[in-house]
Amino acid sequence: MRGLTMGAQSKELKRIFAESVLTAVSKAYSDSGIDTQAVINSISKPRKDYGDMSSSIAFRIAKSKGVKPMDAAVAIAKGFDVAAPFTEVKVMGGYVNAYVDEKAYAHMVIADIEKEGDRYASSGMGKGEKVMVEYPAVNPNKPWHIGHLRNALLGDSISNLLDFAGYKVEREDYIDDLGLQIAESFWGYRNLGNAPEGKFDEWLGKQYVEVNKRMKEGNLGGEISGLLKLMEEGDSEEARQARQISERCVDAQYDTAYAYGIYHDVMIWESDIVKARLLQKALDMAMARGALERRTAGKNAGCVVMDLGKVRDFAKDFENPEETEKVIVRSDGTATYVAKDIAFHMWKLGLIKDEFSYKGLGDHGGRMLYSTSASGGRESFGNASIAVNVIGSAQRYPQLIVKAVFRLMGYGTESERIVHVAYGEVSIEGGTLSGRKGGWMGDGDKAFTADALLREAVQKALDATAASKRISDSKMMEQVARAVGKSAIRFEFLRTSPGKPVVFSWKSALNFEGNSGPYCMYTFARAMRILEKAGYSREGIGAIDFKAVERGYDFELVKLLGEAQEVVEKAASEYSPNVVTDYLMELTSAFSKFYETMPVISSGAARGFRMRLLDAYMQVAKNMFGLVGIDALASM
RNA sequence: GGGCAUGUGGCGUAAUUUGGAUAGCGCACCUGGCUUCGGACCAGGGGGUUGCGGGUUCAAAUCCCGUCAUGCCCGCCA
Predict the structure, then answer these.
(1) Which pairing describes strands A53-55 and A325-329: parallel, antiparallel, or unpaired?
(2) Which of A119, A211, A348, A557 is at a distance of 20 to 30 A from A182, taking alpha carbons?
(3) Which fold has domain A480-628?
(4) For chain A, what percent of residues have pLDDT higher than 90?
(5) Which helix (H) or strand (E) holds A358?
(6) Cα–Cα distance between A257 and A267 in angstroms, integer?
(7) Is residue A469 within 8 Å of A548, Cβ to Cβ?
């Protein structure tokens, strides 16, 4: 087939179509001013009865040449070299539409899927560049609530996507174990007189809420800030104990993470950033380069600040002349959160070579998890070329401050390599998820924690599995229910584009029908059953006659399968897992239609082709499942 | 006051970066389909002035201007 190379079918098709259109344009109009990019932008996927590839370029030519779009389209179609992979070109309403040779194309797509297997639709886009992805950075004093879950699922899936798109990915979690919040929980742990019970993160979260109640009533402020001071000094018994409690809490939070299939490579503790003297180095550099200044007089006397006057043109956020400077280091010498974030990002992007000590925390989900630690070995984390931060959109301003300081330091290019994936926060109807007030505890029987949500989903899946009577073994049933419940929630949380705010509803979070994870899984299991019944094996099927390809749902499915890599690249470059869930829905729906209308086992001459198509669909579905973290079950 | 998001049938969402054909899908609602590969399914139907008002264009959900609503940020909190 002319010019068609393996590995990127729909992209190749588009490229060849664009080339052919461009040639045809220049044949018909000598100086049209149309270039390759213009043609590529004009290409779209038409409705199926209009062909397989479409260009609206005739409209553009009509304008510049003062002719009718229809006439231009006809002229272009006339000059279009109709050769493989195309079989026909038609003009419709000013559009130039081409039809693909469905038999040859189906052959090629399926052969490529079989050849690439689990790597099918992966991409070299990232060129092996190292990306450090940060999520979800929950304070170690409470359980994950459904908002943290959105963050973690986005981070996890974006990491999968970047990895599949050819980046070297490091999954990092920032543990903010200093600060007032932790001191408050620590005080509660010591003074409330409650013994830990149940899951530690949940218990600690409740202590935190209780402390906040008491702070409103009595005067605990002094006592708690005293505690914080001891914690920050690092060498005290309090610091050691506080860290221990935080670690115990993170342990419990990570149990939640694993239940959802969320993993990390490394935890970076805020207290270790301070201990490793990263902060001091970063501040020294920033001041030496004039990005930060120490004030000796005025309202910020004694502070280290960034002069907002110097960064007005960086972003509109800084344009307000009433805001003159941003405090980075307080007058008492303690660092703000932003200060630590500046230092941390300099480390992430290799601008400070300082190394942490790490200890291994064992094998988690097939990968070794490390944590920064007071003592331990060296590892090669950090020094990435891109830092992707999955952080709520509310934190836009402090993220911009970090970038602004980078620019003032002369790290303009690096500042652009800090990516804030600003996701819309999750709210609940008529309430807040505040950790301080305990909104995550809910008011009725169901808490808005990630754990409670999973319990509900698994229970619902258990009921459905029991009702289906496909599985009788109770242990198996439990396993399946866990997979279905987890996948349902993952799909539901990922299917909305990250930037949009979400109002949580139990009903839609536990959706198992239509646009849902279980629907995709169910369809996959049905496909698998057919191959089982037919005794199919990829190796045993032998040569297939692709004459059996019709222009029905079989070819619609083929076309979709060919688009997988484009989907992955779009999703990765936009940090948007919902591009994948959308595609999965389309793919699943296309397969369901195929399944409904085109029998496989009893289809005579078409049987071989249809079985290979089915196998190819399963392979692609499985690859996409992996990216968003839903399980490919054989039965459910 | 300044800034940033978001706004698409009753509800939830896609398409907005790069303007193109009848705004795609799911839930809910109505109708039909299991002795034939798994009904967590499929087919058909009703339901839309894409917040509102202007503008640009052969063509606007998409670009520009204005405006409204909601949320968030503008701290020596994190």
Answers:
(1) unpaired
(2) A348
(3) Isoleucyl-tRNA Synthetase; Domain 1 (1.10.730)
(4) 79
(5) strand A357-364
(6) 13
(7) no
3-state secondary structure A326-376: EEEECCCCCECHHHHHHHHHHHHCCCCCCCCEEEEEEEECCEEEEEEECCC
Q: What CATH number was assigned to the domain covering residues A9-100? A: 3.30.1360.70
Strand partners, A420: A389
Q: Would the pLDDT of A140 be above 60?
A: yes
Q: With 0-12 CB in 10 A as exposed, 13-18 as middle and 19+ as buried, what is A44?
A: exposed
Q: Stated in angstroms, how far is A335 CA from B76 C1'?
A: 9
Closest C-alpha to A381, from A372, A389, A392, A390: A372
CATH superfamily placement of domain A135-428: HUPs (3.40.50.620)
C-alpha to C-alpha distance for A382 and A358, rounded to whole angstroms: 12
Q: What is the ipTM of this complex?
A: 0.96
Alpha helices in A133-292 (DSSP H): 146-164, 180-191, 200-217, 221-233, 237-259, 270-275, 278-288
Neighbours of A538 (CB within 10 A): 13
Neighbours of A340 (CB within 10 A): 21
The residue ranges of every structural domain in chain A are 9-100, 135-428, 480-628
Whether A574 sits with its Cβ under 7 A from any strand B atom: the answer reads yes
Residue A7 buriedness (CB in 10 A; 0-12 / 13-18 / 19+):
middle
Q: Containing H/E element for A596?
A: helix A578-597
Q: Among chain A residues 506 through 545, which have CB within 7 angstroms of nucleic chain B?
A: 508, 511-516, 518-519, 522-523, 525-526, 528-530, 533
Question: Residues A21-35: pLDDT tens digits?
Answer: 999 999 998 877 788
| CA to C1' distance (Å), from A513 to B46 | 22
